[in-house]
Amino acid sequence: MAVADVFPSGLPLKVTIPGEPCSQGRPRFAVHGGHARAYDPAKSRNWKAAAADAMVEAAPNPGQINYPTGALRVRIVAVFSCPKGDWRKRPPLTPRRLHTKRGDPDNIAKAVLDAATAAGLWSDDAQVSVLSVEKWIAAQGEAPHVVLEVEPIPRPAVVSDDLIRSSAVPIGDLFEAQER
Predict the structure, then answer these.
(1) H-type helices in 59-144, by residue range?
(2) How far is residue 119's CA from residue 138's CA, in Å, rounded to a whole number?
(3) What would the DSSP string read from start to end of 124-161?
(4) How far apart are CA 178 and CA 180, in angstroms?
């Protein structure tokens, strides 16, 4: 589905950013004229710029994006390249699997959300109320990429305690399910 089909006239929005996912690096500091200055590491800065460019290109009217207002649900799927040591010469080829090494999901989310803010997909990433981040190692031959999905969270006419209780999962139920 192309972004132009659903944005800005309405959400949901789905953007695929080609290339290796990048975590937001720790800020670097430099002293200029006796004042300390913080800046993004080059790797993070370059990745966010490329990601923002991909998001702007995917928009139907670059520079004329209508910001969604209200709460948003964001899903980020980061697919890292398959290590060469895992490649197989004959089938079955190495399938996609969960990634458990470095980049932390929160730092990946920071980089993607900052790039989306810079691209003008929303006015502020504080609008993101529900965030999901998945890290995967690509299947053999699959290109590394990041998928960003954004959708509005419909606002109920009336928020009552009954609505909140019906959507919440009691903590005890979670532990009982794990013990089974």
Answers:
(1) 105-119
(2) 26
(3) -GGGEEEEEEEEEEPPTTPPPEEEEEEEEPPPPSS--H
(4) 6
In the chain, the domains with their CATH numbers are 3-179 (3.30.1330.70)
Structure tokens belonging to residue 143: 């290109």
The enclosing H or E element of 79 equals strand 72-80
Query: For residues 139 and 116, what is the distance between their CA atoms, to the nearest angstrom?
Result: 27
Q: How far apart are CA 77 and CA 115, in angstroms?
A: 15
* C-beta of residue 65 within 8 angstroms of C-beta of residue 117: no
* Mode of pairing for the β-strands spanning 128-137 and 72-80: parallel
Q: pLDDT per position in the chain (180 positions), as tens? A: 333 333 444 467 888 999 998 887 677 667 778 877 776 777 888 888 899 888 888 765 655 556 677 888 999 999 998 887 777 776 777 777 888 888 888 899 999 999 988 888 888 888 898 999 999 988 888 899 999 998 888 876 566 666 566 655 555 554 554 454
Half-sphere exposure of 41 (CA within 13 A, CB side): 9
- Considering the entire predicted model, what is its pTM? 0.72
